[in-house]
Amino acid sequence: MKTKIVKILPGDTENLEKAAKLIKCGEIVAIPTETVYGLAANVYDESAVGKIFKAKGRPQDNPLIVHISKLSQLGEIAAYIPDSLKVLAEHFMPGPLTVVLPKNPKISDTVTAGLSSVAVRMPSHETARAFISACLVPLAAPSANISGSPSPTSAKHVFDDLNGKIPMIIDGGECSVGVESTVISLLGDVPEVLRPGAVTLEQLQSVLGEVKVNRAVLAPLQKNEKASSPGMKHKHYSPKTKIITVKSSAQAFVRYVNG
Ligand code: AMP
Ligand code: MG
Is the minimum distance from the CB of 142 to ligand 1 under 6 angstroms? Predict the structure, then answer.
């Protein structure tokens, strides 16, 4: 398959519609967001969602984040909207925050990896939102990299990983945030951070009050311990380049680098 890279600005309706047609035909498309590039499919198309797992080599037990362009789409994704979500939405949506909620039965087990919850995010990237809007459906989208590799923050990074595996990459420039969204669960009595990211714990506490941090964020999972965020148990951000750690002073590090 030939992979096309197309530069699209939010007002470019002609190209947005062309790209959205691929989604409507059951294809997958890489899209820019403010955090990292995502690999998107129609959330209601099982076969298209399956293509995401295949292209990335993503383990089937790692659920996808559902991306929306407007808050009114939350009702078709979540079973109900807790008050804490309204507070978070006011401060961080659109933005780099993913919220885990009880899932609406309309959302398939393929998207949520069999969980009864669903992760939702509304990106602040204008092209991302314009594209979701043109697709007329929410989009399931993990990061657009081969599973285990670092997340892509430019169209070129996506091309380097997925060339020949997907039909289109929408080039929306470099990601302004460049790290993953924070994942927060609203399933329990106290909101709980499942993955650290662009929105900090302090920012969340300042609007929600008490916020817990999942144990797996701070320490490796114990044998037989169940991951609250299944992605936490898989290998991540593993670059191909050799890494050398220099356990010494800054001066010794500079001497080492300068050869
Ligand atoms: P990625 O989009 O590749 O950055 O990965 C999405 C992250 O969101 C992974 O760490 C998933 O485990 C997490 N995630 C997605 N859905 C859920 C869910 N329903 N409950 C908990 N974590 C989730
Ligand atoms: Mg990822």
Answer: yes
The pLDDT, as a whole number, for residue 245 is: 80
Q: List pLDDT tens digits, range 182-215.
A: 999 999 999 999 999 999 999 999 999 999 999 9
Tell me if 62 CB under 6 Å of ligand 1.
Answer: yes
Q: Locate the DSSP E strands across 73-131.
A: 97-102, 117-121
- The pick from 34, 58, 161, 183 for probing ligand 1's pocket by mutation, whose C-beta has the most ligand atoms within 8 angstroms, reads 183
Please give the distance of CA 88 from its chain centroid, rounded to a whole number: 18
Dihedral (C-alpha) 216, 75, 106, 113: value to the nearest 10 degrees?
Answer: -10
For the segment 36-56, the average pLDDT, to the nearest whole number, is: 98
Residue range 74-107, pLDDT digits in tens: 999 999 999 999 999 999 999 999 999 999 999 9
